[in-house]
Amino acid sequence: MKNSFCLELRCKQRWQSGCGQTRQAEVTGLWLHLWTMPCTLWVVWALAAMVSLSMTRPPDRTTAPLSCDAAGTCDGRSRSLDSIPSGLTASVKSLDLANNNIAYVSKTDLQGCVNLKTLQLDFNTIHTIEEDSFHSLGRLEHLDLCCNQLSNLSSSWFQHLSSLKFLNLLGNTYRTLGEMSLFAPLTNLRVLRVGNVYPFAKIQRKDFTGLTFLEELELDASNLQQYEPASLKSFQNISRLVLHRKQPALLLEIFADLLRNLESLELRSTDLSSFQLPSLPIGQNGSPLRKLVFRTVEITDMSFSEILKLLNYFPRMVEVEFEDCTLNGHGYFSSSALEEISDASNLETLTIRRLQIPEFFLFNDLRSMYQFVRRFKRITIENSKVFLVPCLLSRHLKSLEYLDLTENLMVEEQLTNSACEEAWPALHTLILRQNHLRSLGQTGEVLLTLKNLTALDISKNSFHSMPPTCHWPEKIRRLNLSSTHIDSLTPCLPQTLEVLDVSNNNLDSFSLLFPRLRELYISRNKLKTLPDASFLPSLLSMTVSRNIINSFTKKQLDSFQKLTTLEAGGNSFICSCEFLAFTMQEQQMLGRILTDWPERYLCDSPSHVRGQQVRDTRLSVSECHRVALVSALCCALLLLALLTVGLCHRYHGLWYMKMTWAWLQAKRKPRRAPARELCYDAFVSYSEQDSYWVETLMVQELEHFEPPFRLCLHKRDFVPGKWIIDNIIDSIEKSHKTIFVLSEHFVKSEWCKYELDFSHFRLFDENNDAAILVLLEPLEKKAIPQRFCKLRKIMNTKTYLEWPQDEAQHQGFWLSLRAAIKA
Asked: For the segment 692-745, what is each residue's pLDDT rounded down to a tens digit?
């Protein structure tokens, strides 16, 4: 029962996980075998199966969004798509879906793309394309289906692709090109790439029918087993063939069908170690072939001699190229074969890149090649570990005009042997880029034998420094010293130069005179300003990009009288107001001279505009007119100060300030002194012009009265050396009453104003009757200043004592004053 329950659980889980009837039948079939298992094992088995099923579920078919621009170019490359995105319309003109997981193309996927011209589906997992999937693509010109899993090719795919010019079917899994003529509808096809490493095994005559105007064919026939003769003869205009072939078998049969039309032949990934050349069925005029390329080919001394025999069939051949090839030999080539072709050959260009010679230490000195190479005009031997060109070989290269020994092992000592007397007599261009040269002076000395040398490239060597003087071939006009780690220039450089490249070094200045220099390349250095134009009177073109130049001016540009092109982008431009004003005013001139304007001209500072294009940058008025703004602000402040002084004078502002200060001082003191601290019965405030009346009459009547009154007078009772304002405040606070002797002189007295004001602030604010007003003479209320508003109010609401002019009334006045003081 337990086993039955566990199996039932297993069946239920499998059914719920979406296995369907197939998985259910699978479980049922296992019943008899598993029914005796313990339940624990059943549970373990069920869990493991569930994990397995979760891992084998179909992938999520969510489509990643495409990136499309206004021109109709859509990029969906490398987005993990497992189907062609839906919703594609007629606006799409180029669709790149390469490097995804698309496995199926249905007839509805592309039906809306009626204007599509380019479709890239390479590097997917496409195994099925429905009939008429490309039915609506009548304007398609480029179709790439490379590197998928198409095992069968259908002619119906191409039935409506009459505009197709490029088709790539490389790297799929088909064995043949179909039962019918696959490419017959493609009457405008110009480039075809077809075949695979394995299992493509058979080519038939019908396969390429209809491709009359094909110009280029790349055929991967690496493991081709059958080739029907004349299968490639239908091509009438073909000019280039790229053939992948592991072994030389069937090679000549394929060549024989195409050599009447080919101009360029490239052979890839072929082992020619055992290659032997029989006679080829080519007419008396020979083949029009002009270029022969061997890429990733293995050869031996003997097979190389056989390859050279091919030149007898190609009288128009001018260029031979070996790239990534391996020579399993010691350089003992057939002298007879070389002699046969030396006179008839028209070869001018030999290119060798990354040649591997496993036993190079046993390699011969190439004496057998001397006569063969004497007509070569251009030789390139790149990255092939060349450390010496024997002097005798150099002397035989009498026609050589161009020699490129880039990325080899040349040093000055061996170069002396290579450039010996009478070596390379016609050489005008020598490239020694990225070798092991160390001394610039010695290099120039060695090359003095090259009388016709005009162009020298010794870039990417480690010179580091430059001697003060050097000797160079007298005709040298072009010199490339880029990436040589030099940090300064000296008169070592020849004055005859017309083109100089010192890019990617550590130069911080350029101050050498070159009267003939027309082109200067000095990018990726540490220049802070443009070179001085007086040193370069003939300069036409200059590149100073990626330095640390902050700016340049119209005056600097105008100083280069003959300059037509300037490349100065990628510098650390300070977008000052002056620089921006210059670029704004001279837009037309900058667009004409600067080849990389405006894209590569970006602001480095100020920080808030960093990264913006100089052409589009604008600064605020405060940044561009700071001096004028500060001047205007100072003038405004000065005017404000003058206005303030005027207003203070007009409206007694200084007085208000003084009173405010005094009031603040008074506020810090107690509101009212305690009774025991009162020293005077009254403080008398009066004008100096009224001192006779106060000091003679008032003092006599009050201080000599019984009982006497003690008065506080400033002349007599103020503490010497104490601030007068403090004296006034203290005297008022220590007096029971304050008597103001009012007169015209009082109103005009500054100190009387202070005394009255302190009484105003200190006494009137306490709402008491401590002030006694005595009018010594008639005084109109309007004579009292408006700022004494409370005094004016008191005079309007309260009575005051008025000194009588009639002497008979004086006694009554004094009685009233004594009563007021006692109150």
From this structure: 888 888 888 888 888 888 989 888 888 888 877 778 878 888 888 888 888 877
For residues 219 and 223, give the distance between their C-alpha atoms in angstroms, rounded to a whole number: 11
Question: What string of DSSP letters covers 172-203?
Answer: ---SSS-SS-SSTT-TT--EEEEE-SSS--EE
Q: Which residues pair with 118 in a beta bridge?
A: 94, 142
Helix (H) or strand (E) holding 392: helix 391-396
Asked if the model's pLDDT at residue 678 lies above 60, the reply is yes
- The pair phi, psi for residue 773, each rounded to 5°, is -100, 125
What whole-number distance in Å separates Cα of residue 88 and Cα of residue 111? 8
- Distance of alpha carbon 552 from alpha carbon 283, whole angstroms: 67
Amino acid at 556: Q
Rounded mean pLDDT of the chain?
A: 84
Dump the DSSP string for 53-112.
HHHTSPPP-PPPPPEE-TTSEEE-TTS--SSPPS---TT--EEE--SS---EE-TTTTTT
> Per-residue pLDDT for 5 more than 60?
no
CA dist., res. 738 & res. 767, Å (int):
14
The full length of the chain comes to 823
Give the residue among 349, 241, 248, 370 at the shortest CA–CA distance from 303.
Answer: 248
User: For residue 801, what are the contacts with CB-CB under 8 A and spacing of at least 6?
Assistant: 772, 773, 774, 775, 813, 816, 817, 820
The residue behind tokens 């061996």 is 414
Bridge-based pairing of strands 226-227 and 73-75 is unpaired
Contact at 8 Å (CB) between 217 and 238? yes
All residues at 6 or more sequence positions from 463 whose CB lies less than 8 Å from its CB, including other chains: 437, 438, 439, 440, 481, 484, 485, 486
Q: What angle do CA 568, 571, 576 make, to 5 degrees?
A: 100
Number of neighbouring beta carbons within 10 Å of residue 453: 23
Q: Name every residue whose Cβ is closer than 8 Å to that of residue 600 and which is 6 or more positions away in sequence.
A: 545, 569, 570
Q: Which two tokens stand for residue 104?
A: 């199926």
CA distance 97 to 728: 99
Encode pLDDT of 44-100 as tens digits: 445 554 544 444 444 444 445 789 999 999 999 999 999 999 989 999 999 999 999
Residue 66 per-residue DSSP state: P
How far apart, in Å, are the Cα atoms of 277 and each of 31, 154, 505? Answer: 69, 38, 52
Neighbours of 630 (CB within 10 A): 11
CA distance 428 to 430: 7
Cα distance between residue 533 and residue 543, in whole Å: 14
Radius of gyration of the chain (CA): 54
Would you say 440 and 463 are in contact if contact means Cβ atoms under 8 Å apart?
yes
